[in-house]
Each structure stands twice: as structure tokens, then as C-alpha cells.
Design goal:
By secondary structure, the protein is mainly beta. The chain has 1 helix and 9 strands, in the order αβββββββββ. It is elongated and about 75 Å long. The protein starts with a helix and ends with a strand.
Length: about 160
């Protein structure tokens, strides 16, 4: 009788463990970003839209469709944007806005379309309309169905 109870208990534990691990195989959304401090990488921040990751001089941004995105300030009003995208037909769109107005918009092409990660590189030349405004670059994939923006990645300039 003791042997049957132990055997039942072991089977029950295995069953629970299998069910728990199969439920945990769902993809976990990227919600943690790492900021670089002067001493070490010890600061974590919950941020589900923009995901800056530590870099030597420039933050790196990512989400579900964009990764390794870096923005370099080339001059007073010119920015170089590089990264990787996993998007339909390798076409990504972008908008620069100041919180009230769209100042510039355009598109770029990655060197590979989904499901591959393609590299992209483009420059943005934009000047603030108001001195106290903050410029934001928004990268996104246009929906193949209706052209609406999807997977938007917000990057402060």
C-alpha cells in the first residue's frame, strides 16, 4: 500500500511539472531594459514600448520587429539611424514628431524581409519648430492589410 501511494505521488508530481513547463513555453514579452551606469549595469526599468539596452556611447532600442537600433547625431539637425528589422517586404516607415506635429516622415528598406532580420540605415534631417520641444523618431511597420502603423518603436532624438 505504501508503495502505491509513493508511486501515485511521483506520477502526480511529474504530471504537474509537465503541465507547468508546457504553459510556460509561451513567448515572454520583452519588458525589461537595461541602463548603463558608470559603475555597472545595475539599473532595471520596466518599459514595454522602448527598450534601450546598454551601449558604450549610444542607447540601443528594440521591440518585437526592430532590434539593435542606434541613432547617432551627425550634426545640429541630422541623425543617422541604423539597426535590424523583421518586417513585411523589408519596408519600414518612420515619422519624426515633436509631440504636437509631424515634422518629417519617410521610409527605408532593410536588406531582407520577414522572417529574416534585415539591416537598415538611413539619415533624418529635421529641425525643431519650437526650441523647448522634444523630437521623437517613431519607427514602424505599415500593415499589409490597411497601411496602419504596427510595432511602433519610439526613440527620443
Amino acid at each position: 500500500m505504501k508503495y502505491i501511494n509513493i508511486r501515485f505521488f511521483i506520477v502526480l508530481i511529474i504530471y504537474i511539472q509537465i503541465n507547468c513547463t508546457s504553459q510556460n513555453k509561451q513567448p515572454i514579452p520583452e519588458i525589461i531594459s537595461v541602463k548603463k551606469s558608470t559603475s555597472s549595469m545595475d539599473s532595471l526599468q520596466d518599459n514595454s514600448e522602448n527598450k534601450p539596452v546598454a551601449a558604450d556611447t549610444h542607447p540601443i532600442y528594440q521591440n518585437a520587429r526592430f532590434k539593435s537600433v542606434v541613432v547617432e547625431n551627425l550634426s545640429a539637425h541630422k541623425y543617422l539611424v541604423t539597426g535590424k528589422a523583421q518586417i513585411f517586404e523589408a519596408n519600414l516607415s518612420w515619422i519624426v514628431e515633436d509631440g504636437h506635429n509631424e515634422l518629417r516622415k519617410g521610409f527605408a528598406t532593410a536588406d531582407a524581409g520577414a522572417p529574416e532580420w534585415g539591416n537598415f540605415r538611413f539619415t533624418v534631417d529635421v529641425k525643431k519648430e519650437r526650441e523647448n520641444s522634444t523630437l521623437t523618431l517613431i519607427l514602424f511597420e505599415s500593415s499589409a492589410k490597411d497601411g496602419s502603423p504596427q510595432h511602433q518603436l519610439y526613440i527620443p532624438l
